Amino acid sequence: MLSYLRRRLIVAALTLLGIATMVFLLVRLLPGDPAETMLARSGASPQAVAALRSELGLDRPLPLQYAGWLSELLQGNLGRSLYYNRPVTQLIGEQFAYTLRLALAALAWAWLAGPALGIAAAYWAGRWPDRLATLLAVLGATVPVFWSGLLLIWLFSVRLGWLPATGAGSWQALLMPSLVLGFATAGPLARIARVTLLEVLAQPYVVAARAKGLTRRQVLLRHALRNALVPLVTVSGLQLSFLLGGTVITETVFNRPGIGRLLVDAILNRDLPVVQGVALLTAGFYVILNLLVDLAVGWLSPQAGWQ
Amino acid sequence: MTTLHRTPGALSAKPAVPTAAGRPVSPLQLVVRRLWRNPGAWLGALLIGAALVAALVGPWLAPYPPDALNLAAQLQAPGSLHLAGTDFYGRDLASRLLFGARATLSTAGLAVSLGLIVGTVLGLLAGYSRAWLGQAFVALIDLLLAFPALLLALLVVALLGPGLATLGIAVGIAGIPIYARLVRSVVLTVRSTLYVEAAQALGAGTARILFRHLLPAVLAPVLAWTTLDAGWAILNVAGLGFLGLGAPPPQAEWGLMLFEGREYLGAAPWTSALPGLAITLTVLGTTLFGDALSDALQPYAGHK
To answer: Which of A142, A241, A279 sits opposite B287 (nearest CB)?
Structure first.
C-alpha cells in the first residue's frame, strides 16, 4: 500500500512539473510584449519599457527565466499581476472563494439528483422512470448553460422577480447558477449509476442473493450500490476539478466574480502572470483530485488498487 | 498474400452474424438495421439534417440580408413579416439564425476534423510504438488531459487571438487528447492480435500496419465518438462565441447572437431564446444519434 502511494505521489509530482513547463512555454508564445502592453496606457517612454522588462526578467534568456520561475513557484510565489500590480496568489485567493462556493453547490445538486435518477432508472429498467431519467440526462448534457441560465433569469428575475439576476453576495444569488451547473453535472452521474447498477445486477452473486430470498430492492441498495459508488466517485472528482476551472461561462451569464472571469479578463488584458497562475491552479487541481479519487477508490473497493 | 492482409475491421463486410431467420447479416447491415429501429436515431438524424440544411442552403432561404438594419422595426415579436422577430437593430432574426448556422457549424466542423485527424494519428502512434516516441506521446496526451477542455481552448484563443477560424482551431486542439486516448486504448488491445503479428511476420512496414490493419479496428469507436464530439464542439464554439472570443459583432453566429440578445431579456426574450434553441436542438441531435450509434456498434448489444 505504501509503495503504491509513493508511486502515485511521484507520478503526480512529475505531472505537475510537466504542467508547469507547458504553461510556462504556452504563455511565452503569446504575441505582444507584456511590458509594452502594461505601460501603453500611460504612454511611457522606451526607457521606461526597457526598465520594466528587466525588472520583470523578460530580457533574460528563456532557460534562466524558466529556472527562476520554477524556484519562485516552489515557494508559492506566482508573481505579480501586470494589470492590477498585485500578487497573483492574492487575486486568485479573492476570486477562488466564489468559484469554490459555486462548484460545491453545483456538485451538491448533482449528487442530490444524479445517483437517485440512475437508481430509479436501473430499478425500473425499460419502463417510464428509466425513459424520464435518460431524457433528463441527455438534456443535462445538451442544453448549454448559457441558455438554461438565461431562461432561468428570464423566468425568476424578469417575470417573477423572485431571485437576483446577477451578483454573488447572497445565497439567493447562488441558487440559479448552481442549479444550472448542477443540472449539467447530474446527467453523467445518472448515466453512470444506471449502467453500473445494471451491470452489477447481472452478476452471479446478485443472482445468488436473490435466490437466498432477498428482494430486488434489498439487493440493489445493499449489494449493487456500493459497486456503483466507485465510478461515481471517480467521475465526481473529475467533475469537481473541471467545475473549479471551467465555470467561466456560468460566471459570465450571471455576472459573478470568480476564477473563470479572472482568466478571461487576464487574457483580454494580456496579463501573463495571472493567465499562468489560473492555468496552473486548474491543472494542479486536476492532478490532486485525481490522486485523491484514486485513493478513495482503493478504499472503496479493495480489488481496485493499493497492491 | 492479399487475403492475409485483409483486416477484420468492425465495418468491413466479412464476418457474418447469424440472425433468428438463419440468414447471415454483415456487421454493417446489422448496425444500419439497429439504427433503423431506434427512434432516438431517427430524431437525431432529423435534427442534424435540419441544421445541416440550414448551414448549406440557409443563405438562399433567408428572407432578408443578415445584417440589414431596420430601425423602424426594432425588437419586434415573431410575426408574419418577421417569422422569428427582430433584434435591437431591427435585423431579421430568422435570416440571422440561418446565416448563423453556417458560421457556428462550419467552425465546429473545423474543430471536429482537427481533433479527429490529429488525435487519431497521435493515438495510433502512441498505442503502437513501443519506443520512447510512444511514451512521449502518452505523456503529452496525459498532460493535455489535465486541462479542462474549455480552459485549453481559452488558452489557445489567447495565443492566436479571437476570431472564428482560431476558435475552430482552439476547440479542435482541446479535442485532440480525447481522440488520442480513445484510439490508443483500442490499439493497445489490437496490436498483439494474431492478424497484426501475421502482418508483422510478413514484413509489413509500420505505416502499412498502422493504416491498413489498426486504423480499421479503431474506426467504429472513433466514429461513435466523433458524432458526440460534434455536439460538444458546437457547445464550446457557441460558448466561446458567447464570451466574445469568436465572430466579431456584426456577423451572425449563434453564440454571439445569444450574448447580444441577453441585454433585451425583458423586452424581447426571443432574441436570445431562439439562438439558444437552435444550439440546443442541434446538440440534442448529435447526442441522440451518437448514443444510438454507440449502442448499434456494440458487437453483442441485445439481439433485438
So the answer is: A142
* d(CA B276, nearest CA chain A) in Å: 5
Residues 244-283 of B with CB under 8 A from A: 255, 258-259, 262, 265-266, 269, 272-273, 276-277, 279-280, 283
Chain B partners within 8 Å of A246 (Cβ): 148-151
B155 touching chain A per CB within 8 A = yes
From chain B, pick out residues whose CB is under 8 angstroms from the CB of A158. 265-266, 269
A82, B22, B105, B283 from B45: Cα distances, Å = 50, 30, 15, 11
* Identity at A143, one-letter amino acid code: V
Question: Could you tell me the three cell numbers for B265?
Answer: 431579456
Q: What is the DSSP string of A228-267?
A: HHHHHHHHHHHHHHHHHH--HHHHHHTT--SHHHHHHHHH
Note every long-range contact of A127-131, with CB atoms under 8 Å and residues 24 or more positions apart, other chains counting: A130/A194
**Option in B143, B148, B269 nearest A22 (CB):** B143
Cβ-contact A20, A78 below 8 angstroms: no
Question: With contacts defined as CB-CB under 8 Å, which chain B residues touch A245?
Answer: 147-148, 151
Residue B81's SS3 state is: coil
Q: What is the pLDDT of residues B3-49, one digit of tens each?
A: 333 334 444 444 445 555 566 777 778 888 888 888 888 999 999 99
Provide the β-strand partners of residue A87. A80
Query: Is this model's pTM higher than 0.90 or not?
Result: no
Contact A220, A227 (CB under 8 A): no
Q: Tens digit of pLDDT for each residue in A99-132? A: 999 999 999 999 999 888 888 888 888 888 888 8
**What would the grid cell of residue B38 be?**
431506434
Indicate yes or no: CB of B277 within 8 angstroms of CB of A143: no
Which residue(s) pair with B15 in the sheet? none
Residue B207 class from Cβ within 10 Å (0-12 exposed, 13-18 middle, 19+ buried)? Answer: exposed
Place of cell 424581447: B268
Residue in B closest to A136 by C-alpha: B284
The answer to whether ipTM exceeds 0.90 is no
